[in-house]
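Thread: "does anyone have the structure for this chain?"

Original post by V.I.:
We have the sequence but no experimental structure in hand. Need at least a predicted one for the grant figures.
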Amino acid sequence: MCGIATVMVKPNGNKELGKKIFKSLMHDNMSRGTHSTGVLNIYPRSKRHKLIKATQPADKLVNSKEFDKMNGSIWIGH
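Reply from O.Q.:
Generated one for you, tokens below.
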């Protein structure tokens, strides 16, 4: 089983704080399972998104270079 985490930042909100909260939620979700992780980051203004997934625990994915490059305002992960 896995848990689902979501963070949405208001248009003029603090994206860095949203990302920090999302990382914390992903760490907390590891108690629900550590076999694979996926993160969807949405950029509403430009109508773009970025998806990363891996067969590794969440703590490794959210500390990766690929994750660091994400800076959208909507975060969804498992």
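V.I.: this helps a lot. The longest helix spans residues 15-29.
O.Q.: and The first strand starts at residue 5 and ends at 8.
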